[in-house]
Every structure is written in structure tokens, then in C-alpha cells.
Amino acid sequence: MSHIALAPLLVAMVMGEGCCPPDAWEGVVGLMIGSVKGKNPHLTKGVQMWHQNVTLGMIAIEEELLVDGLKMKLKVIQDYNKKNEYFIKDGKCTKMTLVPSIPRCLPENATLVENTYFGAGSENVAVKIYRFNTRGLETYFTVTANDCIPVMEIASGTLPNAQVMKVSEYTGISLGVKDPSVLNIPAICQSVEDSAGYVPIMSRWRRSDFH
């Protein structure tokens, strides 16, 4: 398995028009990421159960992925209070230093591309599509028109170590976190040290593009 360092990517939503989602929400994120490093192509696809509470400074993501054909199941917890990110897999925990601030809003360089809708007739949902560039990636991010709830993300570009393209779809979004314990740091992570140089293949890709 290739551990491509996708670290610079997964953060980004914007204050462009004050587009900020609710502080606490959870839902299902389906994603597919294609990348090419040198002449070697890689494909990651799967489902994330996303739980976020900005007020508490915590995000938890439960992932079931297929990475270059290999199944991977893990949980990621991001603690923005202590600036730590934990990766729990196969009963083991790895810790990394987290970026300074929790994702809250779309980036300031986001521009509104289109006001449109999904569906037809009375069965439609009004959305806004924003475009912005972050760390060499061009991103189109679709949110609900009224509440800035994430709907879809398409990002592509060149990172220092690879060319990448990512597509994410957000479904089943509900406000609040039904089971707050999902955000708790497990006991196996309490005494682990930072793993310098260890970058899981999905590291920064797993955050939405909200800043």
C-alpha cells in the first residue's frame, strides 16, 4: 500500500459570503479519491460517518475504505483544544499534531459560481456552488442555499507529491451529535506520543473544505 502524504489538502470552507454550517452536525460522507504519484495510480473510495461539534472543538470520523483494493477500517478523532489528531486502527492508536484551527466556514477566496437546485418540481433543494483554490487545488463546493449544509465537493490539482482528484457527497445530515461519547478520546490514545513522519494515506483529506 502506498502511504501518499496528502497532508495539505482536506481543509477548506469559506467566509466568502458568511457561509458557515451549523456548529454541530453529523452525517454520511461518501468519497472517492484518485491520485498519481510518479507513474503509479492509486484509488481510495469508501464511506465516512462524520461527527462534528465546533463548540467543543472536536471532530470524529469513522471510516470504512477500500485503498488500492485493500479494505481498511479506522476511526479518526481531531481534538482542536489540545491540537492532536488520533488514528485508531486494529486496536492501536497513532497521534499526530493537528492544524491550528477547527474548520468552520468556507474560505475567504471562495466565489459564488451558481445558484441552482437538486431535484425537480416541488421535490427540490436549493443549493449554492462555490469555487476556490487552496494549496494548489481547485475546489467546487456545493452547499444548501439557506443553511450552508455541505452537499458535494469536487477538488483536483497537484500536491507536492502527487496529482489528485477527490469527489465527496454528504447525505443524511442531522443537527447535533446524537451520541456525544463518539467524540471521546479512547484510553488507548491517552499515553501515545506523536508519530513524527507518519502520514496515513487519508490524513488531511478527511476534513471537509470548511475553514
Automatic annotation (TrEMBL):
Superkingdom, natural source: Eukaryota
The keyword tRNA-binding belongs to this UniProt entry's keyword annotation: no
GO terms (BP aspect): cell-matrix adhesion
Database matches in PANTHER family: MAMMALIAN EPENDYMIN-RELATED PROTEIN 1, RICIN B LECTIN DOMAIN-CONTAINING PROTEIN
GO MF, any single term: calcium ion binding
Signal peptide feature range: 1-16
Pfam family, one: Ependymin
Keywords: Signal
Organism: Potamilus streckersoni
GO annotations of cellular component type: extracellular region; lysosome
Protein name, UniProt field: Uncharacterized protein
